[in-house]
Design brief:
By secondary structure, the protein is mainly α. It is built from nine helices and no strands. The radius of gyration is 42 Å and the shape is flat. The protein starts with a helix and ends with a helix.
C-alpha cells in the first residue's frame, strides 16, 4: 500500500516538474497562431485564441480593411468602415483624383472635380502641353497653343536646336539655323574637333585642324605615347620616340632590371646585367 502511494506521489511530482517545459513548448505555437490570425492568414485557428486575443484580432482585421480601402487593395469592405473612416476615405479619394487630373494621369475622373478644380486641371494641362512643345515631346498638340504660346514655343525650339547643333547632338537640324547661328555652330564644331584631336578621341578629323592646332595635337600625341612607354603599356610606339627619350627609357629599364635582380622581386633578366652588376649580386664569386 505504501509502495503504491509512493508511486502516485512521484508521478504527480514528475508531472508538475514537466509542466513548465510543456507550456514553454506550446507557447511559440500559440504566438504564431495569434500572428497568423492578426494577419488574416489561413493558418489562423480561432479556437486557440483567448478573449483578449480575439479582440486584438478583430481590431487588426478592421485596420487591415481600412488600409485596403484607402489603397484600393482587395478585399475592401466599405460597409465595415465607421462614419469618420468613411468620410476620411472620401476626402482622400477626392484629393487623389484632383492630383491625378492635375498630373494628367489616366486615372483622372474629371466628372468628380469641382468647377474650380476643373479650371486648375485645365491650366495644368495647358502648361504641360506648352512644355512638351518647347522640348519637342511627342505629346505636344500645336492646335491647343495660343498665338503667344506658339511664338514662345518657336523661340524655345530654335534655341534648343542651336544648342543641339553646338553640342554635336543628333537632334540638330542645320536647315533651321539662322546665318549667325550657322557661323556660331561652325566655330563650336571646330573647337570640339580640335579638343578631340588633342585628347586622342575618335571624333578627331585631322584634316580640319589649323597648322597651330595640328602642332598642338602632335605634341599631345607624342606626350601620351611617351607616358605609355614609361608605363610599359601595350599602346607604346617606340618608333615615335626621340633619341634622348629612347636612351632615357633604356637607362630607366636597365636600372629597374638591376634592382629586380638585386632584391629578388620583379622580372629580372640577368643576361642584361654588366659584369660589375653581376659581381655585386654574387660578391663571393
Amino acid at each position: 500500500m505504501k509502495t503504491r502511494l509512493l508511486y502516485v506521489i512521484c508521478k504527480q511530482v514528475a508531472c508538475f516538474s514537466l509542466w513548465p517545459i510543456l507550456a514553454f513548448a506550446q507557447s511559440p505555437d500559440l504566438s504564431q497562431n495569434l500572428e497568423a490570425c492578426k494577419a488574416g492568414r489561413e493558418a489562423c485557428d480561432q479556437s486557440k485564441l483567448s478573449a483578449v486575443q480575439s479582440a486584438d484580432v478583430v481590431l487588426a482585421a478592421h485596420a487591415r480593411n481600412v488600409t485596403n480601402c484607402r489603397n484600393h487593395y482587395d478585399p475592401c469592405d466599405l460597409s465595415k468602415l465607421s462614419e469618420p473612416e468613411t468620410v476620411a476615405l472620401a476626402v482622400a479619394e477626392h484629393q487623389r483624383n484632383v492630383s491625378d487630373c492635375n498630373d494628367g494621369t489616366q486615372s483622372c475622373d474629371r466628372s468628380k472635380l469641382t468647377p474650380a478644380e476643373a479650371r486648375d486641371s485645365s491650366a495644368a494641362e495647358r502648361k504641360r502641353n506648352v512644355a512638351a512643345c518647347q522640348n519637342g515631346g511627342g505629346n505636344c498638340d500645336h492646335s491647343k497653343l495660343s498665338a503667344s504660346e506658339a511664338e514662345a514655343v518657336d523661340s524655345a525650339r530654335q534655341q534648343l536646336n542651336e544648342s543641339d547643333c553646338k553640342n554635336g547632338l543628333g537632334h540638330c537640324n542645320y536647315s533651321q539655323l539662322t546665318p549667325s547661328e550657322t557661323k556660331s555652330v561652325a566655330a563650336q564644331e571646330h573647337q570640339r574637333n580640335a579638343r578631340s584631336c588633342e585628347n586622342g578621341w575618335d571624333e578627331c578629323d585631322h584634316s580640319k585642324l589649323t597648322l597651330l592646332e595640328a602642332r598642338q595635337t602632335s605634341y599631345a600625341e607624342h606626350q601620351r605615347n611617351l607616358a605609355a612607354c614609361k608605363q610599359g603599356e601595350e599602346t607604346c610606339d617606340y618608333s615615335k620616340l626621340t633619341i634622348p627619350e629612347t636612351k632615357a627609357l633604356a637607362d630607366a629599364e636597365h636600372k629597374r632590371n638591376y634592382t629586380a635582380c638585386l632584391r629578388g622581386r620583379g622580372y629580372c633578366d640577368a643576361s642584361r646585367l654588366t659584369v660589375e652588376e653581376t659581381r655585386t649580386l654574387h660578391p663571393s664569386d
